[in-house]
From TrEMBL:
<dbReference type="Pfam" id="PF02770">
    <property type="entry name" value="Acyl-CoA_dh_M"/>
</dbReference>
<dbReference type="InterPro" id="IPR036250">
    <property type="entry name" value="AcylCo_DH-like_C"/>
</dbReference>
<dbReference type="InterPro" id="IPR006091">
    <property type="entry name" value="Acyl-CoA_Oxase/DH_mid-dom"/>
</dbReference>
<dbReference type="InterPro" id="IPR046373">
    <property type="entry name" value="Acyl-CoA_Oxase/DH_mid-dom_sf"/>
</dbReference>
<protein>
    <submittedName>
        <fullName>Acyl-CoA dehydrogenase</fullName>
    </submittedName>
</protein>
<dbReference type="InterPro" id="IPR037069">
    <property type="entry name" value="AcylCoA_DH/ox_N_sf"/>
</dbReference>
<keyword id="KW-0274">FAD</keyword>
<dbReference type="Pfam" id="PF02771">
    <property type="entry name" value="Acyl-CoA_dh_N"/>
</dbReference>
<comment type="similarity">
    <text>Belongs to the acyl-CoA dehydrogenase family.</text>
</comment>
<dbReference type="Pfam" id="PF00441">
    <property type="entry name" value="Acyl-CoA_dh_1"/>
</dbReference>
<dbReference type="InterPro" id="IPR013786">
    <property type="entry name" value="AcylCoA_DH/ox_N"/>
</dbReference>
<keyword id="KW-0285">Flavoprotein</keyword>
<dbReference type="InterPro" id="IPR009075">
    <property type="entry name" value="AcylCo_DH/oxidase_C"/>
</dbReference>
<dbReference type="GO" id="GO:0003995">
    <property type="term" value="F:acyl-CoA dehydrogenase activity"/>
</dbReference>
<keyword id="KW-0560">Oxidoreductase</keyword>
<dbReference type="InterPro" id="IPR009100">
    <property type="entry name" value="AcylCoA_DH/oxidase_NM_dom_sf"/>
</dbReference>
<dbReference type="GO" id="GO:0050660">
    <property type="term" value="F:flavin adenine dinucleotide binding"/>
</dbReference>
Length: 397
């Protein structure tokens, strides 16, 4: 074994692009991440370079100007990017979910309108379900779209935790509509909101207040989004299908979970790399700490967790690519990878001793980034809910 998180059976293109992204990360991201993070600055030069590499169009079909690649290719690139800095993978994540939802559920006119511009990264996607009063309980959404007598809708309400809220130009947003269905989630509609970048009242009735200050995941903007009489047209309803928003967004979240698992793998690989290097440099009691069995065993545990998480993530991506249902596999991969990532970064931090607490050491940033992965695209409790429901259905006596 030469390095962790290798993947068997890749195509030549997959091997090439993953290698290219890894080199890009080593050369262009790792050396500058600490400074962007310290100043909480949007990493524009890195984003520009990713546009040139075609990463924003990785999974968009070639007929709409993308590279038409699989979820696995995308996830492996994300793993590499997160190894360099988790925030960079966050720039791509919501964009990728919105492009995927358009591909799966958009009308032909919506695909023509957005996908070619999304493939180049000119239009960039954000994804909004959460509100101040809810995150896990999506069916409880309160932001409301009222049907206008002359056609279209008027939207009012407040959204929370919008990743790329200020830097995106297309937000897929889930709101309550009046479809008169018996189940709450059948009264939810996904709207495509095209807006300029920036903060303040960006369109009549649509305000993006400033950035939310966060523990980690810096550089990338996370915002609220306030609708106050915002007018949306009928052709802004995803797939021209009012009342189908819950299903459409959950489909997006499912691939998003593989993506979060990939990010967790990337952060965990980096935490391991830092630990295995430091353990051979730092001496105590006359020998490198790696020669103390307690530390060597920690490294063995960390590497085993990294490998297990990577294999589950790859399995979930391949399952989706094969057209099989992958809700349980994606939930398991997200759950295991994010929990292991949290443990591996903690172990790496402890191997660094006091220096792990210094902002001069990279592990300090990883310690602040890793907890987000336990929450984004559904907490571990929500993953366990999804997994156990299916298990109890499949193993019903
Ligand atoms: C940095 C950041 C970026 C984000 N980006 C986005 C984004 O781009 N778009 C978006 O829509 N959202 C985004 N989110 C929101 C995120 O998806 C939610 O925070 C997450 O789903 C959890 O929801 P919540 O915070 O409301 O917690 P709650 O749902 O209030 O849960 C609180 C606690 O209760 C537990 N819990 C809840 N229900 C149950 C249950 N039934 N059984 C057992 N335990 C339960 C949870 O696991 C958690 O531990 C982001 C969040 C953060 C922090």
């Amino acid at each position: 074994m030469t390095r962790l998180a290798q993947t068997l059976g890749l195509t030549e293109f997959q091997t090439d692009i993953v290698t290219t992204v890894r080199r890009f990360v080593d050369k262009e991201i790792i050396p500058v991440a600490a400074e962007f993070e310290r100043t909480d600055t949007y990493p524009q030069p890195i984003v520009d370079a990713m546009r040139e590499m075609g990463l924003f169009g990785l999974m968009i079909p070639e007929s709409y100007g993308g590279l038409g690649e699989s979820l696995l290719t995308y996830a492996l690139c994300v793993e590499e990017l997160a190894r360099g800095w988790m925030s960079i993978s966050g720039v791509l994540n919501t964009h990728f979910i919105v492009a995927y939802m358009l591909r799966q559920h958009g009308t032909e006119a919506q695909k023509q309108r957005f996908l070619p511009r999304m493939a180049t990264g000119e239009t960039r996607g954000a994804f909004s379900m959460s509100e101040p009063e809810l995150g896990s309980d999506v069916a409880a959404i309160r932001t409301h779209a009222t049907r206008d007598p002359d056609g279209g809708y008027t939207i009012a309400g407040q959204k929370m935790w919008l990743t790329n809220g200020g830097s995106s130009t297309l937000v897929a947003v889930l709101v309550r509509s009046d479809e008169g269905a018996d189940k709450p989630h059948r009264n939810l509609t996904a709207f495509l909101v095209e807006k300029p970048t920036g903060f303040g009242e960006v369109l009549p009735g649509l305000t993006i207040p400033g950035k939310i200050d966060k523990l980690g995941y810096k550089g990338i903007d996370t915002t609220e989004m306030i609708f106050d009489g915002y007018r949306a047209g009928d052709d802004d309803v995803l797939g021209a299908a009012p009342g189908r928003g819950f299903v459409q967004m959950m489909d997006g979240i499912e691939v998003g979970r593989v993506n979060v698992a990939a990010r967790a793998c990337g952060v965990a690989v980096r935490a391991f790399e830092l630990a295995v290097r430091y353990a051979q440099q730092r001496q105590t009691f006359g020998k490198p700490i790696a020669d103390h069995q307690a530390i060597a065993f920690q490294l063995a545990e960390m590497a085993t967790k990294v490998e297990a998480a990577h294999l589950m993530m790859v399995n979930a991506a391949r399952l989706k690519d094969s057209g099989e249902r992958n809700d349980v596999a994606a939930g398991m991969a997200k759950y295991l990878a994010s929990e292991y990532c949290s443990e591996v970064t903690q172990q790496s931090f402890r191997i660094h001793g006091g220096y792990g607490y210094s902002t001069e050491y990279e592990i300090e940033r990883l310690m602040r980034d890793a907890p987000f992965l336990l929450i984004g695209e559904g907490t571990s409790e929500i993953q366990k809910q999804i997994i156990s429901r299916r298990l109890l259905a499949d193993y019903r006596i």
